[in-house]
Amino acid sequence: MANNSHRYRITVTPVEDDGLPCQSRCTIEFEHTCHDDWMRILESMQRQRGFSGDERAALTVGTKLLSGLMLAHRKDADDLFAPLRPHMGEFIKELKQRNSAV
What is the chain's mean pLDDT, rounded? Predict the structure, then answer.
């Protein structure tokens, strides 16, 4: 059986105002596995109007991270995401519709 998951390493590094290297803890780094190909999604998002390139990337990565966590924890007895679940579904549906209409 083929493995349809994609592994991503997410790195967040602050950009210092003065251009000097940051001190102490400078990077947040973690891995995330997802069944979706984020690169392909980001390519399709390039047609999305009203967002800069950085905003499209943030929207894609942020949405995929949050929806992945929601999916992974959907059966938790104390599902933290339960109140957000219907709204996230509607948001993703609207995002897909807008992207396909462009």
Answer: 88
Report residue 73 as tokens: 């924890």
Q: 21-38 b/e with 16+ CB inside 10 Å = b?
A: eeeeeeeeeeeeebeeeb
Give the CATH H-level superfamily of domain 6-101: Protein of unknown function DUF3861 (3.10.20.850)
Q: Cβ(60)–Cβ(41) under 8 Å?
A: yes
Q: Where are the domains of the chain?
A: 6-101
Q: Name the pTM for this structure.
A: 0.82
Tell me the Cα Rg of the chain: 16
